[in-house]
Amino acid sequence: MAFVTPRRRLLAVHSVPKRCKPYGLDLTALWPMAWTREEPAHGDVAAPFKVTQQTPNGDDQGHHQDVVGLLFGPALVCKSVQDWLQPNCARYAAMYVPRHYTWDGLQSYVDALAESGAFGRNGAVGQEVDISSFSDSEEGLIADLTRKSQRLAVFAASRGLPGQVAEQIEADFKQIGMVMAKIAPATQMQLKLEIMGENSCNTWHQDFYTARTIISYNLDGTEFVNSENVDFWELKNCGNNDCIIRDSSQVYSAKVGDALFMKGTKFPSAARGLIHRSPPKHYHATGQVMHRLLLKVDLS
After folding, report:
1. I need a surface site. Which of 68, 174, 185, 221 has the fewest CB within 10 A?
2. CA–CA separation, 146 vs 177, rounded Å?
3. Does 8 map to a domain?
4. Under a CB-based contact definition with an 8 Å cutoff, are residues 253 and 161 in contact?
C-alpha cells in the first residue's frame, strides 16, 4: 500500500479527520497548541512505507539471547522494559532494550511533519500524567495512560504520520509509562512526541531530573558513554565535545526503534546521571536537515 505525500494546508486544530472522531478525544488538550495539520494531496505519491518487526530466529535468536544481561557500554541490555524493575538494574546508569523494528520510508513523513509546524514552535506535543493522584489505583493510572497515549498517537496520525507508526507509539507510551511509574519515586510523568532537526542538542550532558526513556523511530538513536570515558571538569566547565570525551572510539549509539532508559542526576541510586547527547545531524542533498521523530517519557 502506498501513502500519499502530505501537503501543507492551514486548518484549525479542531478540524479532525473523521477516522479520529470515534475515539472521543479532545486533541486541543495537547501542549503546545498546534494550528496546522497536513492534508493529503491527490497525485503526490511518497516512497512506499513499510514497517516490520524482525523477530530473531535461528542463529539470530541465539545472538539476541546472548546479549541480554550483558553491557552495552554503561547500559544493561534487557529483554523487555519490564526488566527495568529488576533489583540488579540499580547498579547501572542506563538500561537498553533491542527491539528489532524498522520503519522503511518514514523519513519523508517526519520531514513533512516538521515543515508543516504541526507540532508547534518547539516541535513537540505532550501530555502530563499526575502519578501521585493514582497511588492507590493502578487501574486509574492504566486508564489515564491509555487515554493520553492514544490522544498523542491519534494527533500524530491526523497530521500525516502513517497509522502503523502511530499505533506503535501508542503502545510504547503505555508500556513504558506503566514501568516508569513504578521505577522510582516521582509525582509527575511527561509523555512527549518530539521532532528534532537543527534544534537537536549535540553537546555531551547529564539530565538534571529523575529519568527519561527515549526511542528514535528513524535515522539515528541517542549516543552515550561510560563515565570513565568522560573528563568531568570539561563536562561541567567547558562544554567542548572534543575535550569532554577521552576516547571517541568508545561512544555507543542506540539503534532505531530500541528503547533506552537513562537515569538522571536525581535518580535514587548510586549509578545515575548517564552522559549522553543527540547524534550528529544529517542533511539531504538539498542541504535541508533530516528530522528525527522521538518518543520521550520523563519522570520529575
Report:
1. 185
2. 9
3. no
4. no
